[in-house]
Amino acid sequence: MKRGIALIRLLVIVTVLITSVVYLLPIYVMALTSLKTPLAITQRQYLYPGGDLQPGNYTTAFGLVLPSIVNSSIIAVTVTLIAVFVGGLGGYFLSRFKWMIAKVIFVLVAVALYLPYQAVLIPLVQLVAATGLALTHAGLIVSYLILNVPLASTLMATFFFSVPRELEESAEVDGASRLQIFFKIVSMTSLPAYASTAILVFIQVWNEFLLALTLSTPYTTTVQVKLTEIKGSYVALYNLQMAAALMTVLIPLGFFLLLGKYFIRGILAGALKG
Amino acid sequence: MRPGRLSRFGAQAAEAAVFAFPLLFFLLILYGMLAWTFYTSFSNWQGTAADYRFAGLTWYRLMLSQDRFWVDVGNNIRWLILGVLPTATLGLLIAYLLELGSVKGVEAYLRTLILYPSAMSFIATGTIWSWMYQPDRGVLNTILRAAGLDSLTSGYTTDESAAVYWLILIFVWQFLGISVLLLQASLRTAELQEMVEAVTIDGASKLRILYSIIVPNIRGGILIVVSLLVISALKVFDIVYVVTFGGPGYATDVLALYMFIATFQQHLVALGAGLGVVIFALAFVVVIPYTVYALQRWFQ
To answer: Both ends of chain A: CA-CA distance in Å?
Structure first.
């Protein structure tokens, strides 16, 4: 028995060591490269430090990605706010009404949740172009809304399941309407759920690439598209590329590190029920 | 039915409609677009201007006669198997190991460590891993050379026969954290804990407990993780786009990338729509068992 425990301890330590290297090394190389001069990058191994540190790379890279950070922020924040609102309403419907039609809607939502974007990409481009939405952020906002409302609804529904019905029933006796109950009681007790859903939707939209690539214009370039543009440029600005990549992951990563609890709850909610 | 009940039902339906309407609105557009894609795949649309004249199966026939399509299908299958099985198995082993010998601080550290990539975009991870893989000055080869293992160095994503596997490894790296997280949650149900306790007293070995008690009893959790991984592996696009763009040649091409290239670069829109339909059909088949499971749990 003693030997068993010692063996498990050893295995845990080995696992921690291996994963530490595998998961920290890429970040280390990224940070290191972002601080090198282009010359130091082309002359040495990526793994080793070399040349003078260039914190100035970040100022340059920031100027490069700032417009796209603004674009992505406008798009992701708007989508998150609307998706969470609509998702709250839809989620309440899915969690409280158990008629046949609710089952049909549930299946439609479940399929939509996993719909590959390729299956709707061509009509989306047509729609966004025909309505003139393509020229502004509205094009991407509407597209992301269509694709993220099912996700937000499922997440919110899962959370609403755990809100005790007694609260609602007593309000109903007092003569409150469903909408009042929803906004004043259910939503108010579910603020952490809204936070989880918002973080998940925001990260999803911030990181999305396929739609951004096909639907963004020079006015609405998102961070992911900008990153590939920098990567693909012929004058390989590797140091700037790495600095830019680091800056654009800081926002979702910041959410993850600071609000990890909500992020984790969101992932669990999205998987375990819906 | 008494009139009172009927009007009560009517009032309830009206209330429900308020909540359901915005969701239904977005679902309607979504499924409308899906139908539109289907329709387009049977049209004769090539070039930049829309052309919805019916062309039957012409473009599907062309699709099936392309070598590239079958290379893609092969690669997608590789992604499905190698992106899913190792991630789920490794995830289960790590989750179980943490259950057996978890020290609180260690667990929190490990969780954050392997979960952070799930907050990053495939574009960012793909970019970083290009640096790991770069043959001359890249990180992996540098380490191998320093360790005196020159024979193990390789061209990674530039090596035509192995490139796709190196791409899949990036995916495994990025999804391992979610796999551990979800499986940990299903290991922690009270019923399972009791069962494990009972057989532990009988003196069953840890490994035996894992495959004869735990695995059969967390089938639901495994189904969820596998479905999530399968869908993500099936629609993989970003990693391939940013690391190899399907190259060398089209050795690492996948259906999703071909769909993009056919539609927006070659302007064979009907063909692109057909590829979209194929990807959707595959995804749909994969989600069926999961949807049935979720439906049962939801309405039980």
So the answer is: 41
